[in-house]
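User: tokens in, sequence out, please.
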């Protein structure tokens, strides 16, 4: 078996490395350029197809769970008519960052093939684990996908609530915190946060009496922040 594979590879390499007898250097150069353009066009077309909401929800796991939850949030339906789709929140716009994200997401195909979350029960059982992966990713890249649409430089703090403006000035502008620190329940339901480790909740100062008027537990903080964004 391996001998046949080795022989086939050896034969292919000899054909590839053999000098051209029938075609000139100019023709081969032009052919390589045209072939490169065609390949690049096909690659980017395929990349954009995989970067659509229709592709994201083409499998049952996504359509029946995260997408269904998204349809009940302000990112899906709001007074201004601006809708954020799956790739808007989960795929960076910059090409290099986008490719890196696509490579990370390739393991989701593995999960689909083996039915890791092919039922609602399985999805709920894995919700916290899945959420932690996404929270950690967004924390590491400074909420890059959030910044596809939101920019602290463009925020009008005068149109925000006093509490939101205070937190954004103190933590977001200074770089002490990033979007995902507080907005974990913005587009999908939160997992059970009763036993979640302290590192997954917002910084303590954001949950102080000055910011909230009380010192609530992690779950109520996140649910409260999410409810403000949905209204």
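Assistant: Sequence out:
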């Amino acid at each position: 078996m391996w001998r046949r594979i080795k022989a086939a590879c050896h034969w292919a390499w000899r054909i590839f490395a053999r000098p051209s007898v029938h075609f000139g250097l100019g023709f081969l150069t032009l052919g390589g350029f045209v072939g490169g353009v065609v390949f690049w066009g096909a690659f980017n077309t395929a990349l954009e197809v995989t970067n659509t909401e229709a592709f994201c929800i083409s499998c049952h796991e996504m359509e029946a769970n995260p997408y269904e939850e998204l349809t009940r949030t302000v990112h899906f339906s709001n007074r201004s008519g601006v809708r954020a789709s799956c790739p808007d929140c989960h795929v960076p716009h910059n090409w290099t960052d986008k490719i890196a994200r696509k490579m990370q997401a390739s393991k989701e195909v593995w999960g689909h093939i083996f039915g890791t979350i092919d039922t609602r029960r399985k999805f709920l059982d894995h919700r916290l684990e899945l959420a932690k992966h996404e929270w950690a990713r967004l924390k590491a890249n400074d909420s890059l996908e959030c910044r596809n649409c939101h920019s602290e430089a463009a925020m009008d703090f005068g149109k925000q609530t006093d509490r939101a403006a205070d937190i954004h000035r103190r933590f977001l502008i200074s770089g002490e915190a990033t979007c995902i620190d507080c907005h974990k329940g913005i587009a999908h339901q939160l997992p059970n946060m009763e036993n979640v480790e302290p590192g997954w909740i917002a910084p303590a100062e954001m949950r102080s009496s000055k910011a909230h008027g009380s010192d609530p537990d992690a779950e109520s903080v996140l649910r409260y922040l999410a409810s403000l964004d949905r209204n």
